[in-house]
Amino acid sequence: MLMNIDLKEFDGVVAVGGDGIYNEVVSGLTVRELRDHDQDPDNPESKLSQLKLPIGIIPAGSGNYTAWYLNGTKCPVTAALRIVMGRCVSTNIASLHQGNKCSGYSGLILGFGLFGDVMRDCEKYRWMGTSRFKVIPVGSVLNRRPVNVSISYIPTENKRIQCQEDITIQKPDFLRLTSVPVTNTKSARDGYKKRTVSFSDFLDTPSEWKTAEDRVVYAVDTYPITMKPDGTRMAPNFGGDSLELLITGKCKLADHFRQLKAVDDGMSSCYDFEFVKKIQVQRYRVRVLRNKTEDFYLNCDGEVIRLEHPEFDVRLHKNAVQLYGKPNR
After folding, report:
1. Which residues contact 300 (CB under 8 A, 6 or more apart)?
2. Which of 38, 88, 297, 311 could serve as 116's disulfide partner, Cβ 3.0–4.6 Å?
3. pTM for the full model?
4. Residue 44 has pLDDT above 90, yes or no
C-alpha cells in the first residue's frame, strides 16, 4: 500500500504491534523514499533522504523495545498520547545488503553469529509465547559456534553536518492515530519537506576502509538506537553520529555468560570485557571464511534473515526516521 498511495495526504503512520511491525513500516517507507528519488534500494551506495512521514508506535508485540526506549514504558496509552502530542525525535536506521540485493533495514538491532542463532532457535518455539525468549537463548549460548570472518569498516570521523534534531508538529489532529487523511494540517507536513542526507554519505571513500583484527568471532552486532552509559545503567541514545560495531571474540563460556547477563541487566559495564571490541563506524562488511557447509543467520529487529551470500554490507542512515515520542533523558 505504501508503494502507491499519495503520501502528501497523510501526516504520519502509526504501527500497532512490536518491533517487527515497526521494522516493516520503516522498510516500506524507505523503499518508497528511495524510489521517489530515483535511487535503487538494491544498491548499497544509494543515498537515503529523511522519510516523508513520521512513525508512531503503539506497543502490542512480544518485545516492544523500540516503544520502551522511546517513551520509557511499554504502556500503549502513553504511546498514543505521545502520538497525539505530535512531538518527534530523530532516529537512525541501518541498511543490510548481500549479493547486490537489499535484505532489509534495521531500526533496533542487527546481529550476526550468536544473536542470529538465538533468534533462529526462538522461531522454532513460537508456541511457547514470550517465555521462549527466557529459555531458548540459554541453549543457544551453550551451543555457540565460532565463525571465521573478515571484517572491514569505515570508522566515524569528526566531521560536522547540519541535521534536524527535534521538531514539534503544529495543531496535532487525533485522526493521526488511524492515519486518516486530513486536509487542515499543511503546516505540519511542511515541517518534513526538508531533506536530510545520511551522514555516512560524506565518508564513503575506498581509502577510509579499515580491517578489524578479529578473525574468529562469536558475534558481530550493531544497534541503530545505541546504548550509552548513564550512571550504572545503559540508556538509549537516538540519532547518534555512528553505528557502534560490537565484535565478540574468542572467550571462555563462563565469561561469555557473565557478559551477556550484564547486557540483559542493562549494566553500564556490559561491554567492558576484553573479548568485546567496540568500534564507532559509518559502515561495515562481514565476509564469512571457510564455512561452506553451515547456514548462518542475522537477527534484524527480531526477524530471522538467512545469509545467502558469504558477505553482507551494513550502512548507517543517520536521522532517516522521525518517531513520535520523546525519550526520558
Report:
1. 23, 96, 103, 104, 105, 106, 109, 110
2. 297
3. 0.83
4. yes
